[in-house]
Amino acid sequence: xxxxxxxxxxxxxxxxxxxxxxxxxxxxxxxxxxxxxxxxxxxxxxxxxxxxxxxxxxxxxxxxxxxxxxxxxxxxxxxxxxxxxxxxxxxxxxxxxxxxxxxxxxxxxxxxxxxxxxxxxxxxxxxxxxxxxxxxxxxxxxxxxxxxxxxxxxxxxxxxxxxxxxxxxxxxxxxxxxxxxxxxxxxxxxxxxxxxxxxxxxxxxxxxxxxxxxxxxxxxxxxxxxxxxxxxxxxxxxxxxxxxxxxxxxxxxxx
Length: 255
Known about the structure:
Blueprint: H1 7-20, H2 33-40, H3 44-56, E1 60-63, E2 67-70, E3 75-78, E4 97-108, H4 111-116, E5 124-134, E6 137-147, H5 164-170, E7 178-186, H6 190-196, E8 204-212, E9 217-226, E10 230-233
Parallel strand pairs: 3-10
Antiparallel strand pairs: 1-2, 4-5, 5-6, 6-9, 7-8, 8-9
Helix pairs in contact: 1-3, 2-3
Protein backbone atom coordinates (compact mmCIF):
# COMPACT_ATOMS: atom_id res chain seq x y z
CA UNK A 1 0.00 0.00 0.00
CA UNK A 2 1.21 3.51 -0.83
CA UNK A 3 2.79 5.31 2.10
CA UNK A 4 0.81 8.26 3.43
CA UNK A 5 0.56 10.42 6.52
CA UNK A 6 -3.12 9.42 6.49
CA UNK A 7 -2.59 5.72 5.89
CA UNK A 8 -4.67 4.84 8.98
CA UNK A 9 -7.61 6.71 7.45
CA UNK A 10 -7.27 4.78 4.18
CA UNK A 11 -7.31 1.54 6.16
CA UNK A 12 -10.30 2.77 8.16
CA UNK A 13 -12.24 3.39 4.93
CA UNK A 14 -11.28 -0.01 3.51
CA UNK A 15 -12.45 -1.80 6.66
CA UNK A 16 -15.78 0.03 6.39
CA UNK A 17 -16.11 -1.08 2.76
CA UNK A 18 -15.32 -4.67 3.75
CA UNK A 19 -18.11 -4.51 6.34
CA UNK A 20 -20.52 -3.05 3.78
CA UNK A 21 -19.58 -5.78 1.30
CA UNK A 22 -20.16 -8.51 3.88
CA UNK A 23 -16.52 -9.59 4.16
CA UNK A 24 -16.69 -8.66 7.84
CA UNK A 25 -20.17 -9.32 9.20
CA UNK A 26 -22.10 -7.87 12.12
CA UNK A 27 -21.14 -9.49 15.40
CA UNK A 28 -18.16 -11.34 13.91
CA UNK A 29 -14.57 -11.03 15.07
CA UNK A 30 -12.26 -9.33 12.59
CA UNK A 31 -8.62 -10.39 11.99
CA UNK A 32 -5.99 -9.45 14.56
CA UNK A 33 -3.79 -6.35 14.27
CA UNK A 34 -0.97 -8.53 12.97
CA UNK A 35 -3.20 -10.14 10.32
CA UNK A 36 -4.65 -6.77 9.27
CA UNK A 37 -1.13 -5.38 9.03
CA UNK A 38 -0.18 -8.17 6.64
CA UNK A 39 -3.41 -7.68 4.67
CA UNK A 40 -2.96 -3.93 4.25
CA UNK A 41 0.84 -3.78 4.30
CA UNK A 42 0.90 -1.48 7.33
CA UNK A 43 2.46 -1.36 10.77
CA UNK A 44 0.58 -2.47 13.89
CA UNK A 45 0.64 1.15 15.13
CA UNK A 46 -1.18 2.29 12.00
CA UNK A 47 -3.66 -0.59 12.21
CA UNK A 48 -4.26 0.10 15.89
CA UNK A 49 -5.10 3.75 15.17
CA UNK A 50 -7.51 2.81 12.35
CA UNK A 51 -9.25 0.27 14.58
CA UNK A 52 -9.50 2.74 17.47
CA UNK A 53 -11.05 5.35 15.17
CA UNK A 54 -13.67 2.81 14.06
CA UNK A 55 -14.33 1.80 17.66
CA UNK A 56 -14.83 5.46 18.62
CA UNK A 57 -17.32 5.76 15.75
CA UNK A 58 -19.24 2.71 16.95
CA UNK A 59 -18.37 0.62 13.89
CA UNK A 60 -16.15 -1.82 15.80
CA UNK A 61 -16.20 -3.03 19.39
CA UNK A 62 -12.94 -3.89 21.17
CA UNK A 63 -13.30 -6.59 23.80
CA UNK A 64 -10.19 -6.86 25.95
CA UNK A 65 -8.74 -10.36 25.87
CA UNK A 66 -11.10 -11.53 23.10
CA UNK A 67 -10.48 -9.35 20.08
CA UNK A 68 -12.28 -6.79 17.94
CA UNK A 69 -15.81 -7.34 16.63
CA UNK A 70 -18.03 -5.68 14.06
CA UNK A 71 -20.60 -3.76 16.07
CA UNK A 72 -24.24 -4.35 15.30
CA UNK A 73 -25.63 -1.35 13.49
CA UNK A 74 -27.88 0.85 15.60
CA UNK A 75 -31.27 1.57 14.07
CA UNK A 76 -32.12 5.29 14.20
CA UNK A 77 -35.59 6.00 15.63
CA UNK A 78 -37.05 9.45 15.05
CA UNK A 79 -38.82 10.08 18.34
CA UNK A 80 -40.27 13.53 17.63
CA UNK A 81 -41.83 12.90 14.23
CA UNK A 82 -45.54 13.72 14.52
CA UNK A 83 -46.66 12.01 11.33
CA UNK A 84 -45.12 8.60 12.00
CA UNK A 85 -45.51 5.77 14.45
CA UNK A 86 -42.60 3.81 15.86
CA UNK A 87 -42.01 1.42 12.97
CA UNK A 88 -42.77 4.15 10.41
CA UNK A 89 -40.02 6.22 12.03
CA UNK A 90 -37.55 3.34 12.25
CA UNK A 91 -34.83 3.33 9.61
CA UNK A 92 -34.43 -0.38 9.06
CA UNK A 93 -31.89 -0.60 6.25
CA UNK A 94 -31.70 -4.17 4.97
CA UNK A 95 -33.27 -5.66 8.09
CA UNK A 96 -36.81 -7.01 8.20
CA UNK A 97 -38.88 -5.32 10.89
CA UNK A 98 -42.23 -6.89 11.79
CA UNK A 99 -45.02 -5.73 14.06
CA UNK A 100 -47.09 -8.51 15.71
CA UNK A 101 -50.20 -8.05 17.86
CA UNK A 102 -49.95 -9.67 21.29
CA UNK A 103 -53.24 -8.36 22.67
CA UNK A 104 -56.19 -6.58 21.08
CA UNK A 105 -59.33 -5.97 23.12
CA UNK A 106 -61.87 -3.33 24.07
CA UNK A 107 -61.63 -2.38 27.74
CA UNK A 108 -63.24 0.12 30.08
CA UNK A 109 -60.65 2.80 30.70
CA UNK A 110 -59.57 3.32 34.29
CA UNK A 111 -59.97 6.78 35.83
CA UNK A 112 -56.50 8.02 34.91
CA UNK A 113 -56.78 6.94 31.27
CA UNK A 114 -60.33 8.31 30.92
CA UNK A 115 -59.18 11.63 32.40
CA UNK A 116 -56.34 11.80 29.87
CA UNK A 117 -58.92 11.57 27.08
CA UNK A 118 -61.05 14.24 28.76
CA UNK A 119 -63.75 11.93 30.14
CA UNK A 120 -64.97 11.94 33.72
CA UNK A 121 -67.21 8.88 33.40
CA UNK A 122 -66.78 5.42 31.91
CA UNK A 123 -65.45 5.12 28.38
CA UNK A 124 -64.33 2.29 26.15
CA UNK A 125 -60.90 2.17 24.53
CA UNK A 126 -59.09 -0.32 22.36
CA UNK A 127 -56.04 -1.69 24.17
CA UNK A 128 -53.48 -2.72 21.58
CA UNK A 129 -50.25 -4.43 22.61
CA UNK A 130 -47.71 -5.11 19.88
CA UNK A 131 -44.20 -6.51 19.74
CA UNK A 132 -41.77 -5.09 17.17
CA UNK A 133 -39.04 -7.43 16.01
CA UNK A 134 -35.96 -7.06 13.84
CA UNK A 135 -35.76 -10.54 12.36
CA UNK A 136 -36.34 -12.82 15.34
CA UNK A 137 -35.03 -10.30 17.86
CA UNK A 138 -37.58 -8.23 19.84
CA UNK A 139 -36.60 -4.57 19.96
CA UNK A 140 -39.74 -2.91 21.30
CA UNK A 141 -43.16 -3.51 22.86
CA UNK A 142 -45.93 -0.94 22.43
CA UNK A 143 -49.05 -0.41 24.57
CA UNK A 144 -51.50 1.83 22.69
CA UNK A 145 -54.97 3.05 23.71
CA UNK A 146 -57.54 4.38 21.25
CA UNK A 147 -61.04 5.70 22.17
CA UNK A 148 -63.81 3.67 20.53
CA UNK A 149 -65.97 6.81 20.32
CA UNK A 150 -63.40 8.26 17.91
CA UNK A 151 -62.49 5.03 16.14
CA UNK A 152 -65.60 2.79 15.86
CA UNK A 153 -64.83 -0.78 14.74
CA UNK A 154 -61.08 -0.12 14.79
CA UNK A 155 -60.53 -3.46 16.55
CA UNK A 156 -61.53 -5.19 13.30
CA UNK A 157 -59.22 -3.06 11.17
CA UNK A 158 -55.89 -3.32 12.98
CA UNK A 159 -53.74 -6.32 12.12
CA UNK A 160 -50.14 -7.49 12.17
CA UNK A 161 -47.80 -5.16 10.28
CA UNK A 162 -50.55 -2.57 9.76
CA UNK A 163 -49.64 1.03 10.65
CA UNK A 164 -52.28 2.37 13.04
CA UNK A 165 -51.11 5.90 12.26
CA UNK A 166 -51.92 5.48 8.58
CA UNK A 167 -55.20 3.76 9.46
CA UNK A 168 -56.16 6.67 11.73
CA UNK A 169 -55.25 9.24 9.07
CA UNK A 170 -56.64 7.52 5.99
CA UNK A 171 -59.66 5.54 7.25
CA UNK A 172 -60.89 7.78 10.06
CA UNK A 173 -59.68 11.08 8.64
CA UNK A 174 -58.02 12.18 11.88
CA UNK A 175 -55.26 14.74 11.38
CA UNK A 176 -52.60 15.03 14.05
CA UNK A 177 -51.91 18.58 15.15
CA UNK A 178 -49.86 18.31 18.33
CA UNK A 179 -47.91 15.65 20.20
CA UNK A 180 -46.04 15.32 23.46
CA UNK A 181 -43.50 12.60 24.21
CA UNK A 182 -41.66 11.90 27.44
CA UNK A 183 -38.54 9.76 27.38
CA UNK A 184 -37.20 7.99 30.46
CA UNK A 185 -34.71 5.22 31.20
CA UNK A 186 -36.43 2.63 33.42
CA UNK A 187 -36.24 -0.97 34.56
CA UNK A 188 -38.96 -3.03 32.83
CA UNK A 189 -41.63 -4.85 34.80
CA UNK A 190 -41.86 -8.62 34.42
CA UNK A 191 -44.32 -8.46 31.51
CA UNK A 192 -42.27 -6.01 29.46
CA UNK A 193 -39.03 -7.87 30.25
CA UNK A 194 -40.57 -11.15 29.05
CA UNK A 195 -41.85 -9.63 25.81
CA UNK A 196 -38.50 -7.99 25.06
CA UNK A 197 -36.36 -10.93 26.16
CA UNK A 198 -34.41 -8.87 28.70
CA UNK A 199 -33.90 -9.07 32.44
CA UNK A 200 -35.95 -6.91 34.84
CA UNK A 201 -32.54 -5.68 36.01
CA UNK A 202 -31.71 -4.36 32.53
CA UNK A 203 -32.55 -0.79 31.55
CA UNK A 204 -34.90 0.07 28.68
CA UNK A 205 -36.11 3.31 27.12
CA UNK A 206 -39.71 4.14 28.05
CA UNK A 207 -41.54 6.61 25.79
CA UNK A 208 -44.97 7.95 26.78
CA UNK A 209 -46.81 9.68 23.96
CA UNK A 210 -50.07 11.59 23.66
CA UNK A 211 -51.36 13.02 20.36
CA UNK A 212 -54.09 15.61 19.76
CA UNK A 213 -56.14 16.58 16.73
CA UNK A 214 -57.53 20.14 16.56
CA UNK A 215 -59.12 20.02 19.99
CA UNK A 216 -58.79 16.70 21.84
CA UNK A 217 -56.44 13.83 22.68
CA UNK A 218 -56.88 11.06 20.09
CA UNK A 219 -54.07 8.62 20.90
CA UNK A 220 -52.05 7.55 23.92
CA UNK A 221 -49.27 5.00 24.00
CA UNK A 222 -46.48 3.83 26.24
CA UNK A 223 -43.75 1.86 24.55
CA UNK A 224 -40.39 0.41 25.46
CA UNK A 225 -37.17 0.11 23.47
CA UNK A 226 -34.13 -2.01 24.12
CA UNK A 227 -31.12 0.19 24.76
CA UNK A 228 -28.85 -1.97 22.59
CA UNK A 229 -29.10 -1.59 18.83
CA UNK A 230 -31.22 1.58 18.92
CA UNK A 231 -30.15 5.19 18.37
CA UNK A 232 -32.71 7.89 19.12
CA UNK A 233 -32.74 10.91 16.81
CA UNK A 234 -34.68 14.15 16.95
CA UNK A 235 -35.83 16.17 13.95
CA UNK A 236 -36.94 19.73 14.69
CA UNK A 237 -38.33 22.27 12.25
CA UNK A 238 -38.16 25.51 14.19
CA UNK A 239 -40.23 27.35 11.58
CA UNK A 240 -43.30 25.11 11.80
CA UNK A 241 -43.33 23.86 15.38
CA UNK A 242 -44.66 25.89 18.27
CA UNK A 243 -43.01 24.84 21.48
CA UNK A 244 -45.46 24.43 24.35
CA UNK A 245 -45.14 23.16 27.90
CA UNK A 246 -47.65 20.30 28.03
CA UNK A 247 -47.42 17.73 30.78
CA UNK A 248 -48.51 14.13 30.27
CA UNK A 249 -50.52 13.12 33.35
CA UNK A 250 -49.67 9.94 35.21
CA UNK A 251 -51.57 7.08 33.59
CA UNK A 252 -51.70 3.60 35.07
CA UNK A 253 -51.74 1.32 32.03
CA UNK A 254 -51.42 -1.76 34.21
CA UNK A 255 -54.60 -1.13 36.19
